[in-house]
Amino acid sequence: xxxxxxxxxxxxxxxxxxxxxxxxxxxxxxxxxxxxxxxxxxxxxxxxxxxxxxxxxxxxxxxxxxxxxxxxxxxxxxxxxxxxxxxxxxxxxxxxxxxxxxxxxxxxxxxxxxxxxxxxxxxxxxxxxxxxxxxxxxxxxxxxxxxxxxxxxxxxxxxxxxxxxxxxxxxxxxxxxxxxxxxxxxxxxxxxxxxxxxxxxxxxxxxxxxxxxxxxxxxxxxxxxxxxxxxxxxxxxxxxxxxxxxxxxxxxxxxxxxxxxxxxxxxxxxxxxxxxxxxxxxxxxxxxxxxxxxxxxxxxxxxxxxxxxxxxxxxxxxxxxxxxxxxxxxxxxxxxxxxxxxxxxxxxxxxxxxxxxxxxxxxxxxxxxxxxxxxxxxxxxxxxxxxxxxxxxxxxxxxxxxxxxxxxxxxxxxxxxxxxxxx
Length: 423
Known about the structure:
The chain has 423 residues and is an alpha/beta fold. Helices cover 32% and strands 15% of the residues. It is built from 15 helices and 12 strands. It has helices at residues 54-67, 85-94, 110-119, 132-138, 144-157, 176-186, 215-235, 259-263, 299-302, 312-316, 319-326, 335-338, 342-345, 350-357, 367-375; strands at 24-28, 71-75, 98-103, 123-127, 161-168, 190-195, 245-248, 282-285, 290-292, 305-306, 378-386, 397-404. Strands 7-6-5-4-3-2-1-8-9-10 form a 10-stranded mixed β-sheet. Strands 11-12 form a two-stranded antiparallel sheet. Helix 1 (54-67) packs parallel to helix 2 (85-94), helix 2 packs parallel to helix 3 (110-119) and helix 6 (176-186) packs parallel to helix 7 (215-235).
């Protein structure tokens, strides 16, 4: 798997009283994977040489419980490829932790779903990135789209909640409505879209990245789809909390006319982007015991330490994990430095800006930014400058070029078809 994983609604919403607590943990329990996705941020394929043992994982689980963690999402690689995955799920479940999983679903069989559900897994999100001709290229694996759809069926048959996430990039963004219709057909409870950003294997393919000015088209489309989901729910007599939720990932936003519509839970209180959650109430754990404030952050600059050397409670207080708890607008730069929303937003998703521009504090994919520039007759383009090194969670660097905004010509169907990934 790669990048931030979307989540279905938690047992209890995060409140201001939860600030500074690791309420939500995303735990990569192995890098072993039955895909080798062409956009994977962790470059998952084979397990790390020094992944935590079963006993070590159970000890980490106990530490999370003591710190007040209420929900854990298991990821990989593919978490289900560890034989002790059901044991970890059961251990957390017995202590009152809500356990979910995010997966590409290629090997998520009916038998595995039944075992995980029996252990206490409550929800599974399956990544589906558009129609098969797009999904299978992004996943670098023919047949992976069909396998992901089967996985959704297996999850539902086992009695677990289904959700799905979609990578949004130049290959996939044209197919938002088509994918939405498929998710409606499959009955998923939450469909969340997340931008592909240049980390890991995606850093090797900068031509796949969505142009920053396209963010307006993407979010306008998602807003229409969320309204459609509400209309469908009303027509079926369903309460708002039962409708399919079309949601924004942490690196999609910010502060356009649809912010509250796409950031709030249906039937819940109004919500909007209030800054990067890394280390405020989220934490990421890598399979060798390294701990970061967010699972998507690149390893080298953001690891606070290793659970084999220090307790989770100690690591939680390190500078690497607490940077959002102490940050100010002083670190902002570029457009974000002068933005009206700077004090609240603090430059959006730290992960996305850092792996794109080499440091956090200036987020190129932003609705408010793109629409503001468009009114001035301008738009931004990303140009590769430094290549990635080729290791898990790595990144290179791109630079922003400001240019005159030209209305794009209608694209022919041929331009919408991705080519196969070169080996």
